[in-house]
Amino acid sequence: MLAKREIQSDFDEMYKLLMEYDYKARISDELIKEYLKSIHKASYIFCIWKINFEKVSLDYTYIDEIVSTFIQIIYTTVYRDVKILYMLYRNIIDNFIKVCKDRLSITCKYTLEAFEIILDKDEIKDNRILDDSFRKILNLYKVSCGYVHSQDEKFLSFNEGIKNYNLNNKEDLKRSVKEFYNLIKNINYIFIFLYEEIYDKEFTPEEKQLIHFFCNREDLREIFYIKYGVRYNK
After folding, report:
1. In which domain of life is the source organism classified (predicted)?
2. Which residues fall within 8 angstroms of residue 8, CB to CB, at 6 or more apart?
3. What is the pLDDT of residues 144-159, one digit of tens each?
4. Which of 70, 73, 95, 71 is nearest to 84 (CA)?
């Protein structure tokens, strides 16, 4: 049948294009390599929390979900699929908020509602680091929920779209990787306070050093001041 042959022919063309995709060349791109370094660093720091949650037998189901998403992000970054990256960021934030809900005894169903309740708590409002970090994560969550990937070009055919997929999104990719890095940094800040006892008693000196290495210097000074009442010099 003519229709069947046309569909098969179009599939063969699509399959050929996918077979020509050079994953090794993409991952060897210095720009992608630098992005992967940032993603790996943020993921490595987050996994320190997972290790210490395990030490005290804390339920880390949602933490495991986040770590699993990191692996997806690494592969998706190589393919430069920004839309899927933001979908994965949303997934991370959904699971992160579930962790916070357990810790703060919040029983609401939806993530945005949980953010409202969290940001209205005095212990959050009175802590600049916590308030600022939650607000930044909320902003990324809203961006991730509303993100629509678009191409400047209008493709004449399905296979032309596949051939030119994600060729002109360098700035979007750069921004998305930075947003991921900052997301994990802000989660790190929040965990330092929400899980203060674990941080103070369970973390080894080497682990704390790694956590501090991941912080902005000014933010770290503020964290020390809030926690210990000590203002370190610049």
Report:
1. Bacteria
2. none
3. 998 754 444 454 566 6
4. 73
SS3 call for 233: coil
Contact call for residues 134 and 153 (beta carbons, < 8 A): no
Q: Is the CB of residue 219 less than 8 Å from the CB of residue 129? A: yes
More confident residue, 215 or 59: 215
Q: In the block, which residue shows the tokens 């077979």?
A: 19
User: What global pTM score does this model have?
Assistant: 0.88
State the sign of the Cα–Cα–Cα–Cα dihedral 114, 202, 123, 226. Answer: negative
Give the CB-side neighbour count of residue 53, counting CA atoms within 13 A: 18
d(CA 189, CA 64): 19
Tell me the C-alpha distance between 152 and 154, whole Å. 7
Helices 30-55/205-213 angle, 10° precision: 140
What DSSP character marks residue 57? T
Domain positions in the chain are 22-228
What number of helices (H) and strands (E) belong to the chain? 13, 0
Within 120-203, residue ranges assigned H as helices are: 122-125, 128-146, 158-163, 170-194, 196-201
Q: What are phi and psi of 233, to 5 degrees?
A: -70, 155
